Hints:
This protein has helices at 2-15, 20-27, 31-39, 46-56, 65-76, 104-107, 112-115, 119-134; strands spanning 81-87, 92-96, 138-146, 149-161, 167-176. By secondary structure, the chain is α+β, with helices and mostly antiparallel strands. Helix 2 (20-27) crosses helix 3 (31-39) and helix 2 crosses helix 4 (46-56). It is globular and about 55 Å long.
Amino acid sequence: xxxxxxxxxxxxxxxxxxxxxxxxxxxxxxxxxxxxxxxxxxxxxxxxxxxxxxxxxxxxxxxxxxxxxxxxxxxxxxxxxxxxxxxxxxxxxxxxxxxxxxxxxxxxxxxxxxxxxxxxxxxxxxxxxxxxxxxxxxxxxxxxxxxxxxxxxxxxxxxxxxxxxxxxxxxxxxxxxxxx
Length: 180
């Protein structure tokens, strides 16, 4: 998973039109160190992770997905709950416990409409956009056609902010409330 995360990091940097040198300078670190972080051969300290995340506009927790995964797995491994973060372009930066139709490594760096197209996807993207536009919590029921039938999720969208309070993305918690 780390290597896929780091591929996403490279893609995000390139989408923003930045070089490794640009990110390193804006994050107040050495370019060679940043290159090692992108390659996955080094993990940043929490302070450096926060600086890089601020520069590129995502949650620093994305660097520690594997460390955070164990407590979530123990508590939620058999639950119908999906937790996710996305950036301001609505691209996933972190996801936990997705439906079996979606694998973590296939979701990171993509938007919902890159993964599928149906009314549920449009409604989810609309909910996230409303969180982004208002900076407020948004919630609603959304129906998704999936490989094992139609599932209804109660979705909570929350603004994801950096330490300065600036909006850097959206986080969602979705609970499958289908009858079956």
